Hints:
Helices cover 31% and strands 17% of the residues. The chain has helices spanning 18-24, 27-43, 120-145; strands at residues 48-52, 55-59, 63-69, 82-86, 108-112. The termini are far apart. A five-stranded antiparallel beta sheet has the order 1-2-3-4-5. It is built from three helices and five strands, in the order ααβββββα. The chain has one domain: Aspartate Aminotransferase, domain 1, CATH 3.90.1150.200.
Amino acid sequence: xxxxxxKKKMQNVNFRSVDEFLEFLPEEELQMVAFLRxxxxxxxxxxxxxxxxxxxxxxxxxxxxxxxxxxxxxxxMKNRGVRFGFSNGNLLKDESNFLDNGNRKQIYWKDFxxxxxxxxxxxxxxxxxxxxxxxxxxxxxxxxxxNSNKKLPLKKESNHK
Length: 161
């Protein structure tokens, strides 16, 4: 009988808080992450910040955007700089092709290698649009379930007695 293959870890870290995440970062990444984080918090003052995949995601109703520094690996992929991504980037109007998507269908991002790469006004315009998309998705879901005579079930009923 052959031994089971060792499961490869997808990430090199496991943080319990955003503060712990920030303390881990090398100084150059920390400066960019702190700058990008402040842009998000200024642009979406009522957002919730939470770690997912060991990086900060920002949400209102759904995930809006995230900041992924290269020191936080995903699998065997190694990036450079700090990635600023949009969870529904495929819905953003990006006529200048500012954002990349690689081979992803929904997630779009921009990689920054130094503070001077960050175009604050352009990035904020994408963030504002992403917030509108977040709200539209929520309202669409509300219309689908909330404005009809049907109520969402609170829990699945069992046929077993």
